[in-house]
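Take a sample.
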Amino acid sequence: MLPMIAVMFLSTAPMVPTEEEVLESTQNHFPVILQAIEGMQAAQGDVQARMGAFDAKVVSNNTSVPVGYYKRDYWDAQIEKSFGFAGSHVYAGYSYGFRGMFPPQYSTFSTNSGGTPRVGGSFSALRGFSIDARRAEIRKAELALNTSKLDIQRTRISVKRDARIAYWHWISTVRNVQIHQDLLDLAENRNRVLEQRARAGDISNVVVTENLQYIAHRRAELASAELGMRQSALDLSLFYRDQNGEPRLVGNVAPHDLDTRMQTRAQDVETNADHGLYPAFQGGSLLRRPDVLSLSNELAINQWDVKLAKNMFLPKLDLGIDYTKNIGNQDPSNAPHVLTIFINLEIPIEYNLLKGISKTAHARQRALTSQYNFLIQSIQVEIDKLRQAISFSRKRMNNAQQEMNYAKELVQAETYKFTQGGSNLFLVNIREAAYTQALQNTILSQLDLIRAQADYEASTTLAPKE
């Protein structure tokens, strides 16, 4: 191989990054990951908002009738608080309606001179005892929050895979440019020798013209390779970001080990495969994949809808107690102490609404269960396919390397025959083109192996245990 050519980019990054630097940059600054983090923040806000259904509140009702036969003033304030146990609800309040005259229909608003403090509470004995819509919404929001956390992990895994592939694809395009540059340099150096021989009358000018044709073709191939390199660098810049999160192009000086960096990475994958680091599907552990856990959360969220639908078929039976104390000048109609016990019962006669809600919830549960089972089966197939991809990519890479070695020997032999007058430029060009293709096949096979390993790692990365 001839010396590595320079990678020509206008760039803010003076050095070519390592794979680790690209991955670190991606995890810290990639917009899709930041978007997922914001999604988690939004889910946290939703949980807090759902808990607001149990916030304490003050309710005030004030009435003043300054004109009319029954001139009167009435003031009432009450603080209320609901709890998550058995649909319980407590309150404490104070009413004052002493000043003025109250018509008979509003006599309950009349209080003694000191007003009327009161306390009370209620709870649900049947419907709403174990679950109600407010508590279900909180549980569902908490599960959605867990899902948003899993989305962050899943996004990180996906972005890491994409960044890794983008990095090694860029490396492969740089090497492809190098191959075509070497091939062009070979033809241009040969042309100088051929021109000298043509001037000396040793060969025909047609041979020089033929070589110039090959040079023109190789320059076109080099231009295509350079375009691919520059576009892959732009793709990589989406993952390789500066401290401000802005994309940056790779440096314009390729390190000397760039030629061997990809080969070393592919060999590492081979070594890991030899040590059994790419095992087959393991159902128990892979159930902790973020996408599986996310779907489990969906099942759990819908399960709350099923529980709520089942609970709604129960009669609504609310039990409560209220204690009122009348303070001040005695009004014969206002006893000093009043204790009220109430029982509210509601029994639906028709169940169309409840049956419809229950049917929808159970149907969705069955659908999610089928989706979950299919996901597990798909994971098993996916892992098996990726293990096969690693295995066959290794074979392809080894065969490509053998092809490259044979092609190199043929180029050397054909070139020697040509210098000795036993061959022609057409055959030399064919041999060199075949060797170039073999080099490209080797690079592509290494890239395929690295890609298969990246896919396998992404597919088997599990969510951390909490």
Remarks:
- Residues 1-11 have pLDDT under 50 and may be disordered.
- Residues 60-129+315-350 form one domain.
